[in-house]
Amino acid sequence: MVEWVMFVLFGVGSVVAAALVVIPVKGQTPLHAAIALIVALSAIAGLYLLQAAHLVAVMQVLVYVGAVVMLFLFVIMLLNLSAEDSGTAKITIAKVLGVGAALTVAGLLAGSLWSDPPQLRAVDLSLPAYKDFGWVSGVAQKLFTDFIVPFELISVFLLVAIVGAVVLAKREL
Question: CA 39 to CA 14: how far, in whole Å?
Fold first, then answer.
């Protein structure tokens, strides 16, 4: 029962925080959106912990909360955006269609949960499918064999992004 309560708390927390990232609230600045993103990503790390994926949860916090969001914060601080720069919110057809699509997906998910409620069971880590699940050796084996090229490409893209941010910062100074 405790797992179910924690799942609901982490799930609702991540959805609400993610909504605060993209939905402009009166007086909200890009800094507030970045802080809401930190809360959303931390709640997702809590969901990983509930699934006994401890390594993935730690990597979620280190990589996304610790590195990517900090990069976002540096860019936000570097650009020094004011409330006047963001302009006024306008209702467009894309926003209306997006809200309609989101409500449709939420309704379908709620209907599927209502018709077939999930079973309240803990994760059985003794099953063969979970032999290397969440362990460093299993993740490292997949990362450095099957996914080595995407891993290296991401590192190059991050390096280019950092160099670009430094060039933009030097241009402003």
Answer: 7
104-141: pLDDT as tens digits = 998 998 888 888 777 766 667 677 766 666 677 777 88
**How do the domains of the chain map onto residue ranges?**
2-134, 135-173
Is CATH 3.40.640.10 the classification given to domain 2-134? no
- How many CA atoms, within 13 angstroms, populate the side-chain half-sphere of residue 91? 3
Q: What is the DSSP string of 19-50?
A: HHHHSPPTT--HHHHHHHHHHHHHHHHHHHHH
Report in angstroms the alpha-carbon separations of 122 from 2, 45, 52, 78.
10, 17, 10, 46
Q: Quickly count: other Cβ atoms within 10 Å of residue 29's Cβ.
A: 14
Token readout for 28 is 């909200």
User: How far apart (Å, rounded) are the C-alpha atoms in residues 83 and 35?
Assistant: 17
pTM of the predicted protein model: 0.63
Q: How far apart, in whole angstroms, are the C-alpha atoms of residue 74 and residue 57?
A: 24
